[in-house]
Amino acid sequence: MSIHPTHNNDILAMDATDIAAYIKKGKVSVYEAVTTYIEHIEKINPSLNAMVETRFTKALEEAKEKDEILKKTTPSSPLFGVPISIKESFHVASMKTTGGLVYRHDLISRIDAEAVSRLKTAGAIILGKTNTPALCFCQETENKLYGRTNNPWDSNRTAGGSSGGEGALLAAGGAAAGLGSDIGGSIRLPSHFNGIVGFKPGMNSISMEGHFPQAGTELQKRMLSAGPMGKSVRDMELLYQLLSTRKTQAGILSNFKIDILSDNMDYPLTEDTKVFLEDIHDFLTDSFLTNRRVPPYFEDSALLWQEIMSSDGGKLMEKEAFNNDRSNVFKAYTKEKMTQNTAIHPYLSWAIIGAKLFKPSKSRMREIQRILSKGDQEIRNYLHNRILIFPVYHTGAPEHGKVFQEIFSIRKTFLQFMPYVAYANVWGLPSLTIPVGRDQNNMPIAVQLMSSVGNENAIFRLGKMLERKFRGYIRCDR
Fold first, then answer.
1. Rounded to the nearest 5 degrees, what angle is found at the Cα of 146, between the Cα atoms of 140 and 152?
2. pLDDT digits (tens, 9 = 90+) for 52-68
3. Which residue, of 33, 66, 195, 252, has the greatest Cβ tally within 10 A?
4. Is this prediction's pTM over 0.90?
5. What is the set of active-site residues?
6. Where do the structural domains in the chain lie, given as residue ranges?
7. Residue 93: pLDDT over 90
């Protein structure tokens, strides 16, 4: 189907809410919308390597079926005909779920993950699945099965992880919206590095049924969440409502206090990011009671995150990675570094080794439980009518490999680089990431808005204010 380039660009620029409205009003057909995105993905994906499995033929069939429905009635489904993408870690019926592991290259899912099923029920059309690091166990997206995903703004720079394929694809306009997951910044880092909007829901807000891998321990479950990624705050709000059964509180936004993280701390942060935080503070001061401060338990969160991630000594990840292989993880890592000829990516094997090295003792685990129990109550009270604004990472997207070096160093440098994202994971907080500008390298810079579970409505409303005032989503026109 031939589409006029101007019209094509109009469709690619629309968020999911606009596309759904245009389809229902008959301004664009579902087939036209789906075809536009397919053609665009075929153009951009060779250099990005963001989408690793497609279902284009099936998507076009579904588009024709939905157009036939439109001839007879106006559907009420909020995402009727909207083309979306899905992180590879979620089961999609008749598609692979590999976790980036070579031995799983032909494993086909028979059913949809719960989150995927909800999006399909809402009328969305899935275009394909996007790349992740092996077993989602890294904040950079690269694996032995599918290779590395590149940042659309600069192919020499990381797309982040573990939802890096989603971040890169959406930044380049490859879908109207997408689905990611987050246990250690995995939605927020790719949103920040690629310049898209992302939302990590609070703990137990969205079903993780059908996500691979699953969290290995109960403490890890509190940190893991599925969540939407896309082009606008209003889309994040809509998709969250579709994905979650949890009710949010209406709340009057003007009654909320805004705490912006102080930059007067011994943690790395670029001058560009500091300026954006101060600009946001100046903008909000006229309408809200604002402060620059450090919230409770901030300085504990990076260590708690690492200890929780290491609480099973990487046992589940090792079992999945070496399912049909008797290799010792230490030998596998050494062999890979020497030959680059093993089936396990060194990012994964080194992360498993780190989990073994940093596994907390039984007495420390009891102490962690006490800290979490006490902290949950204190932070819940603190955030009752309060929204936090944090950076996402200390810099915009660095060159490939740099984030891995900073977070997975034996010198525990994660203590310096992980607090900004670890806070929302450890304490199970909803967190909205919004692009606010670009750094000196012309790479996107974002901030995240957090509060307690139930205050999502206030987070979204404040997010819309910042989105209008600052950069928001801008498609990378490749």
1. 55
2. 999 999 999 999 999 99
3. 195
4. yes
5. 87, 162, 186
6. 5-311+360-469
7. yes
